[in-house]
Amino acid sequence: MRKTGRSLFGVRPMRHSLPLAAFASLALSACAGPVYVNPCYGAGLLLATDASGPEIVAAADQCIADGGERKQGLVIRAAGHLRDADTVAAVADTDAAIGLDPAYADAYYYRGLAHEEAGALDAALHDFDKATALGLAPAFALRARGRTRFLEGDFAGAYDDFDALIAAAPEDQEAYRLRGATAHVLERWAQAEADFDRAIALKGDDAKAYSGRAYVKYFTGRFAEAAEDFKIALAPKPEGLKAAFLYLAMRRAGDPDAEAELARQAETLDASRNPGVFPALFLGRVGIEEMVEISKKTGIHKPRENECEGYFYAGMAELFAGHKAEAEMWFRRVMATGVVRFDEVRGARMELRAMGIFVPSPDPRAAPQN
User: What is the spatial distance between Cα 201 and Cα 68, in angstroms, rounded to a whole number?
Assistant: First the structure.
């Protein structure tokens, strides 16, 4: 199993937002005489609320005890387990539901979510494909498969899924943010910015969309504009990585308040850990080598991803100090990690290109460029 690592503008497993794929199967059904209420209907409705995992599991058990359809109860119970990230129990319940009905699309969908949460991305893709083939609604199938392809590293495939999702649901705000995030990784800058613009137009307080647009503006050289979007994205809560990029944007824009703003953002950050150590580096509170070691030892990602982050900020510190050769060394180390999704990689790629060093595009459909 592979860990999914750091999210990008919200592209990650969605265990806290799990409506049943086919609510119609749980709806009230009229029979001759008195109206019959499906015992699983109330339990299913809990999935669209903030109910806890144990509450949902208990409601699912009750619906089965009250004569509800067992396969539905099992899938609802699996969704409850996912609220607590209990992927083992979720897979067991969905396996049982599939055993009762091998053509039950909802069961494959929720088992796919469980596999995705556990990092078993190939198994998740298999289940999402199966659910799609069995008629799962596109709004669920394409979102889930696209998200998993993104985490798997198939960014072009993820883009296609999110593109199809928007075609099926043109007012789906999250779909634009997801496609924007994928276009961003592929360095399809105009498309990424258009998608983040649309996501913001549909939901004006979406900090993740502002964050995505900020990075796009940074990587296309509009540093002052990027800084303004970073400030909006950081308003709900200070965060080390975005605070560091806000500082980079302000420095590049020639803003004399860059260091003061970074110090304000860093007030509540832990400089002894990744990512709080990155603002501390630019504030002169830790040295480059110390920062790199802290990034490696305290990062929450895979080792090469933690290294990638530290190497990039080391390169930027050397660059600001006028040490071009040392900066180039760190940026080359970033690229050597093989990481693709992180913005530190795009930052290193941008700086190397500015030095006249060829670095290929991550987009397999793009023309050769430098």
Answer: 42
Distance CA 112, CA 139 (A): 15
Percent of the chain residues past pLDDT 70, beyond the cut: 88
How many residues make up the chain in this entry? 370
* Distance in angstroms (rounded) separating the CA atoms of residues 297 and 295: 6
Give the mean model confidence (pLDDT) for residues 43-49.
80
DSSP 368: P
One-letter amino acid of 30: A
Cα angle, residue 244 at apex, residues 240 and 249 outer, rounded to 5° = 145
State the Cα–Cα distance between residues 312 and 346, nearest whole angstrom. 10
CB atoms within 10 A of CB 113: 28
Percentage of residues of the chain with pLDDT beyond 90: 77
Rounded-to-integer distance, Cα 60 and Cα 70, Å: 9
| Amino acid (1-letter code) at residue 8 | L
Between CA 68 and CA 44 the distance in angstroms is 11
C-beta separation of 271 from 295 below 8 A = no
Give the residue-averaged pLDDT of 38-44: 77
Distance CA 370, CA 361 (A): 8
**Amino acid (one-letter) located at 261:** E
What are the helix (H) ranges across the chain? 41-45, 53-65, 70-83, 87-100, 105-118, 121-133, 138-152, 155-168, 173-185, 189-202, 207-219, 223-234, 240-252, 258-265, 277-282, 288-298, 303-320, 324-336, 343-354
**Residue holding tokens 């199809």?**
164
Global pTM reads 0.84
Check whether the bond before 238 is cis (ω within 30° of 0): no
More confident residue, 195 or 12: 195
Tokens read off for 59: 């409601």
In the structure encoding, which two tokens stand for residue 20, read together? 């049943």
Short-list 328, 367, 363, CA closest to 348: 328
